[in-house]
């Protein structure tokens, strides 16, 4: 069934700005089941992890509706460097190289829940060391998830009261016909984490009074930063006063401590990306893929391992082997 016009406006799916070979050593593939042994490429979510050796917290970033991982990479890289945090960029279904057709609020939220499970269950980062950061449409996802569990902090950049409230500014009473999505004004009341609201008073798309009202509705520890010169799509890196300085000050009040991060090797397996399979057909339909998805007949470990260095090298360096028909296993 065709999605409604509002969903198409909320998630317009801009052209991808990266591919499976981008961000070497930082692009991850997370199965929705969190089980790499049974996962199919079309069920995996691309993420970008920017690690920081001296990190004291773990930031999960939910980007705006006209961004993808490539478009927000520079901003998140600066957050990593300035804030001294591990930063994980979440991709939405249909965005960038993430499998999926037209995205909607439910699909984006479900995808993001998987990501937070990955952070907690696989990376072993506790919720009280995790800070959710959302920008524009991403604030709806971040607030919804922060209302479901307690995290170390919630940071909202140019948030809106709700989609219905936002639409009503443009179409008036007809907004009553629009199904509600991302009711931040309701969800913020259930957020227990400390909150930082960042908004530009020159925002022509989402007026800053949305942040003001959310700030007033928030019942947890809260901070509000309004910048007179900041607009909805202002460069948050070019002017540190827009975001970096408030974020650094916010973190001082959280009392987070340094911790190490262990990322499983299977998360870097590029064969979990449908585009990798499409452009490397010699790896499709071959023998059983037992170690790092390397065919058993070509595997340095003979398929008897679950992550040997030799098989990892085949993936990490884009090496692939053509198997003669006579050597293929059949089931």
TrEMBL record:
Record's protein name? Serine aminopeptidase S33 domain-containing protein
A Pfam family that the UniProt record links to this protein: FSH1
Q: Which residues form the Serine aminopeptidase S33 domain?
A: 59-177
Phylogenetic placement of the source organism: Eukaryota, Sar, Alveolata, Dinophyceae, Suessiales
What's the superkingdom here?
A: Eukaryota
Q: Which residues belong to any copy of the Serine hydrolase domain?
A: 181-222
InterPro entries per UniProt: AB_hydrolase_fold (IPR029058), FSH-like_dom (IPR005645), Hydrolase_4 (IPR022742)
Q: Which organism is it from?
A: Polarella glacialis
